[in-house]
Amino acid sequence: MRDLIAFTTPLMRSTVGFDRFNDLFESMIEGAEDRFDTYPPYNIEKAGEDHYRIVMAVAGFTMKDLNITTQREALIVSGKAKDREDKDVTYLHRGIAARAFQRTFRLADHIKVTGAEMHDGLLTINLVHEVPEEAKPRMIPINGNGAATPIDGKKQKTN
To answer: Which member of 30, 111, 115, 152 has the greatest number of CB atoms within 10 A?
Structure first.
């Protein structure tokens, strides 16, 4: 059981709103080398019944350096920091990575991006699960007259 948890945990890191294993497995196979990259670090949070958040640590990036796009069932977050040459600064250690990145999240059906904001080096992307009316379950009334109605609408002869 422990191996199964270790196997599915990386899968769950790059998806939002999924509960179908086949889609998760397929997404892992398609881009396995990109799926396990840990830069930049991020959290996926459930903020309510139908609300989710992706919070990414993007220290060293400005809002102009970041792009967020949606494409079919994917949310793509990319960043490329402009070269900032500090001629007056000599670095003894440069540990804040501002390297270019592209992170793709597969979104489940009916997950919509509602907005994004950036505060204190954290990029927050808000998502909501909106099921359209035609996709929601609906009750079908049952007629109680005892006679079956054929599909073609014609009356059947009774003997």
So the answer is: 111
pLDDT confidence of residue 97: 76
Q: What is the DSSP string of 103-128?
A: EEEEE-TTEEEEEEEEETTEEEEEEE
In a domain, 25, yes or no: yes
Cα–Cα distance measured from residue 81 to residue 97, given in angstroms and rounded to the nearest whole number:
10
Q: What is the pLDDT of residues 36-78, one digit of tens each?
A: 568 899 999 988 888 999 999 998 899 999 999 998 889 999 9
Residue 119's DSSP bridge partners are 122
Q: How many domains does the structure of the chain reveal?
A: 1
Task: Say which DSSP state 50 is in.
Answer: S
67 located within any domain: yes
Return the CATH number at 128: 2.60.40.790
| Contact in structure between 113 and 127 (CB atoms under 8 Å) | yes
